[in-house]
Amino acid sequence: MAVTIREVASAAGVSVSTVSRAFTAPDQVQPKTRQRILDAAAKLGYSPNPAARSLRGGGTGTLGLIVPDIANPFFPPIVKAMQARARRLGYTILVADSDEREADELETIAAFSKRVDGLLLWASTLTEDRLRELAAQMPVVVVNRHVPGIPEVRISLSAGITQAAEHLCAYGHRRCVFINASRAELSRGKSIQESFEALDLSLVELGPYEPRFETGVHAATLVAAHGATAVIAHNDLVALGVLHQMAGLGVSVPGDISVIGIDDTLLASVSTPNLTTIRIDPEEIATRASDLLIETINGRTKDDAAPCVEIGSRLIPRASTGPAPAN
Fold first, then answer.
1. C-alpha to C-alpha distance for 163 and 46, rounded to whole angstroms
2. Which stretches of 4-54 are assigned E, i.e. beta strand?
3. How far, in Å, CA of 241 to CA of 281, rounded?
4. pLDDT at 181
5. CA 38 – CA 192 distance, rounded (Å)
6. Phi, psi of 10 (to 5 degrees)
7. Residue 3 forms beta bridges with which residues?
8. Does the pTM of the predicted model rise above 0.90?
9. What would the 3-class secondary structure string for 89-155 be?
10. How far apart are CA 217 and CA 200, in angstroms?
11. Dihedrals φ, ψ of 307, to 5°?
12. Distance of alpha carbon 272 from its chain centroid, rounded?
């Protein structure tokens, strides 16, 4: 079996994080300590990760990006923007999706690990222990996951959700449904619940389901049973499924029910009716995530003060929301 970073740490009498820094950020480790680690690694036959190879001029010049579903229209603009940013900084990117399955994510990480200098994991399905072990072996940044000690990009929906709740409240809505389509992003449902309750809006949560168009189609048939006049969906893809099914059922949007998505993908602006949605800027995400990952690769972040970059959001009102129907 391959020698692990923990075995090297034990042999050298240091912590796992110190071993990691010895390979990824040597200037942060005392020369004698680093030499002891390198000697222990050589004796045990430890195979360094890509970041370690870069210290000898053998870096891959590649960043790895693993997203939950590459078919979701939210991700292609981010991939394109991240690719452009990485290219300007001397890198290229490898992209794959996990389909929100832990086994698939682990398999992809294993395939990427020798080909990239660092990994950006979006809404990772891995446990905190697995993520910490991975981060000890190579530079890692997580998106929409919080794991102490690992650099993260956090998408804050607080502003956008508050604006959505105020928007619906102003239109006279009181009974709403949230279609939850993610087991990984538990904070999203909690944030929506708190924002809606603050304005005395009743909110029923459906799910969690898969974050797909078909989920919206399925959930649309359940919405009426709750007497709701407004729906907020986990993302635009789910919201578009709701719009499609409502049209098939002869339910008017926004005459009978208002629908809000999250992400502001291209499809939101061309749907019928145009979809009211919470915008998350793909350019900002791509730029700041790429920069943070490269900083992590270059050893400019520390385990005990892992940075958190926050991306904001805002409501984009369109034609899918309107006054609540009269009782």
1. 52
2. none
3. 22
4. 81
5. 49
6. -65, -45
7. none
8. no
9. CCCEEEEEECCCCHHHHHHHHHHHCCCCCEEEEECCCCCHHHHHHHHHHCCEEEECCCCCCCCEEEE
10. 28
11. -75, 155
12. 28
Residues for the chain: how many in total? 327
Residue 16 burial (CB < 10 Å; 0-12/13-18/19+)? Answer: buried
3-state DSSP percent of the chain in helix, strand and coil, to 5: 45, 15, 35
- Cα three-residue angle 8-10-13, rounded to 5 degrees: 105
What is the pLDDT confidence band of residue 301, given thresholds at 50, 70 and 90? low
Nearest alpha-carbon partner for 149 in 11, 286, 16, 12 = 16
Q: Are 115 and 91 in contact (CB under 8 A)?
A: no
Per-residue pLDDT of 198-252, as tens digits, reads 999 999 999 888 889 999 999 998 987 888 999 999 999 999 999 999 999 999 9
Closest CA to 5 of 18, 24, 19: 19
Place of tokens 């034990």: 10
User: Rounded to an integer, what distance in angstroms lies between the CA atom of residue 18 and that of residue 28?
Assistant: 9
Closest CA to 259 of 202, 219, 207: 219
